[in-house]
TrEMBL record:
UniProt keyword annotations, A-Z: Carbohydrate metabolism, Glucose metabolism, Isomerase, Magnesium, Metal-binding, Phosphoprotein
Keyword presence, Magnesium: yes
Protein name, entry field: Phosphoglucomutase
GO molecular function: magnesium ion binding; phosphoglucomutase activity; phosphopentomutase activity
Catalytic activity: alpha-D-glucose 1-phosphate = alpha-D-glucose 6-phosphate
Enzyme class: isomerase
Source species of the chain: Eremococcus coleocola ACS-139-V-Col8
Gene Ontology biological-process annotations: glucose metabolic process; purine ribonucleoside salvage
Length: 573
């Protein structure tokens, strides 16, 4: 169907939501083409898009359509799945509350029970709720750290992890069978409550989560005896992290917690930041001011749905240095392994799990403790999948999982990245090092001196619209077809093509990969460096990653420059 026909169908729909109808009349032809020229894609990370009318926008109708697909999948699974129901949570973004209850109304129309939180909650708490309630699935309404005009819809499986590709593909087929999002039927909300098909979740589940999170703390006595010596600044960036983040910290024994009050309450406009993204220094502007006032030992920020955590650490001159997601993971892994060893609690079959585009420095640290590291495809669902395998086989004990994009998980009672857990663990780590007279910059430098200097860089190239999608596909095809034996003069020892599931070693010998198909490429170099390419699963961009290893900072900087130039040449189409 053309964009014009899609538009006319919506324009002529007599009961179209009034607010959407008013917005529809204000759109230019170019905007209409984008809003109606395609359907909002539903991938392995669910769907995410700009709010507004249209088939390529986030609105009550596209949310209904996605939920109708989920409902049909559940119905086909049988009565046990129907009775297990679906847990639903939502963040502070515009329309999150409305989308959550629209999803519940669609499920209820089919006799499927929905458990919906009474107010906004973090994404990891939704993952916890799915497991705690033994629900068949979960829905999280969030657009993570995207700008204010976005919202999104993520689906979780019964294990509390995001749906893996094969399950998401099945769900996508159900969604595509729905002729029009405008025709999806919904039940009356109050009637669903009366029928027991809509249950509102509240503090009982929060308390269960807070009880579980106590297991994240490795050394409770350390916190009990020395927490007062540490000043923590925390900002939830107008999102969902405040209530449970503060509860978790205070429950553990932390008292010197200073909240950035201007950013404490949920607000979908995110009025004090350009972007509610804890990866960016600008998101910490207010936290830095407060940190200097109180003499903070660390600044911590969670994104709107509190699954990602960023940090800044104080330098000798009173300024603060932002940490990369990889550096946070390095500090975490170093502390966890050291603290567990000191307690004689480090399992010999323990394993850390990370994405293929995350730092190899953690591998070196773990190996020093006799612990293995497993690399999986990008997406925390693959880390959750490993946890499930370890529980089934008993071969390994999960110690920690992380992605370079500021996502961490310490204890697997949640099966997605959990910034509340990370908040608690980092606070404990600061106490440990301050008690020993070490600053975090010193700790990081000591790690580099022991294991080598590592630097990881992520570069995003944006490609808007359908033309952008075509260009991204062309670039990935070009890279695959280009023989690459050296990069910046360094020999390529291994090439991994996860779409074609092929591994090619330095001698040109091919072998098959066992990982699921994914549009990603990775090259490993003879000096321990690497680079990778993949289109984003949620945004119109190709992400270029490279990790560099060198013996000193000067060599590291030179190598980074040379590899960056080589990458620019490789992606030039």
């Amino acid at each position: 169907m053309t964009w014009e026909k899609n538009y006319q169908e919506w324009k002529n729909f007599e009961t179209l939501d009034k607010a959407l109808n008013q917005e529809l009349s204000k759109l230019s032809e170019t905007q209409l083409q984008d809003a109606f020229g395609s359907d909002l894609s539903f991938g392995t990370a669910g769907m995410r898009g700009v709010l507004g009318p249209g088939t390529n926008r986030m609105n009550i109708y596209t949310v209904r359509q996605a939920t109708e697909g989920l409902a049909q999948l559940i119905l086909d699974k049988g009565q046990d799945a129907v009775q297990a129901g679906v847990a639903i949570a939502y963040d502070s973004r515009h329309m999150s509350y409305e989308f959550a209850f629209e999803a519940a109304r669609v499920l209820g129309f089919h006799g499927i029970k929905a458990y919906v939180y009474e107010s906004l909650r973090p994404t990891p708490v939704l993952s916890f709720a799915v497991r705690h309630l033994k629900a068949f699935a979960g829905i999280m309404i969030t657009a993570s750290h995207n700008p204010a005009e976005y919202n999104g819809y993520k689906v979780y499986g019964s294990d509390g992890g995001q749906m893996v590709p094969e399950d998401a593909d099945v769900l996508t087929k159900y969604i595509r069978q729905i002729a029009s999002p405008l025709t999806v039927k919904v039940a009356d909300q109050s009637r669903l409550v009366d029928q027991g098909l809509l249950e509102i979740l509240g503090d009982d589940l929060d308390q269960a989560y807070l009880e579980a999170i106590q297991s994240v703390t490795i050394n409770p006595n350390l916190i009990k005896n020395h927490a007062d010596m540490v000043n923590i600044v925390y900002t939830p960036l107008h999102g969902t992290g405040l209530y449970l983040g503060m509860k978790a910290l205070k429950q553990a024994g932390f008292k010197q917690i200073h909240v950035v009050e201007e950013q404490a309450q949920g607000n979908g406009d995110f009025p004090t930041v350009k972007s509610p993204n804890p990866e960016e220094v600008s998101a910490f502007d207010l936290a830095q001011k407060l940190g200097q006032d109180v003499g903070a030992d660390i600044l911590l920020a969670t994104d709107p749905d509190a699954d990602r955590l960023g940090a800044m650490i104080p330098l000798d001159d009173g300024e603060f240095q932002i940490l990369t997601g990889n550096q946070i993971a390095v500090l975490m892994a170093d502390y966890i392994l050291k603290a567990l060893q000191e307690k004689a609690s480090l399992a010999p079959n323990g394993r850390l799990v990370k994405s293929i585009v995350s730092t190899d420095l953690v591998d070196a640290i773990a190996a020093d403790y006799g612990i293995e590291t497993k690399s999986v495809l990008t997406g925390f669902k693959y880390i959750a999948e490993q946890i499930k395998q370890y529980e089934t086989s008993g071969d390994h004990e999960f110690i920690m999982g992380f992605e370079e994009s500021y996502g961490y998980l310490i204890k697997p009672f949640v099966r997605d990245k959990d910034a509340i857990q990370a908040l608690l663990l980092l606070a404990e780590m600061v106490v440990y090092h301050k008690k020993a007279g070490r600053t975090l910059p010193q700790v990081l430098e000591n790690i580099y001196q022991k294991y080598g200097y590592f630097q990881e860089v992520t570069v995003s190239k944006v490609f808007e619209g359908q033309a952008g999608k075509d260009q991204m596909a062309e670039i990935m095809s070009h890279i695959r077809q280009t023989p690459v034996n050296t990069i910046a003069g360094i020999e390529v020892t291994d090439k991994y093509d996860y779409l074609n599931q092929i591994h090619v070693d330095g001698q040109g010998q091919e072998s098959s990969l066992t990982e699921p198909k994914s549009d990603a490429l990775k090259y490993c170099l003879a000096d321990g460096s690497w680079l990778a390419f993949r289109p984003s699963g949620t945004e119109p961009k190709i992400k270029l990653y490279y990790g560099i290893k060198a013996g000193d900072r000067q060599s590291l900087a030179q190598k980074a420059k040379e590899i960056s130039q080589a990458i620019d040449h490789l992606v030039a189409v």
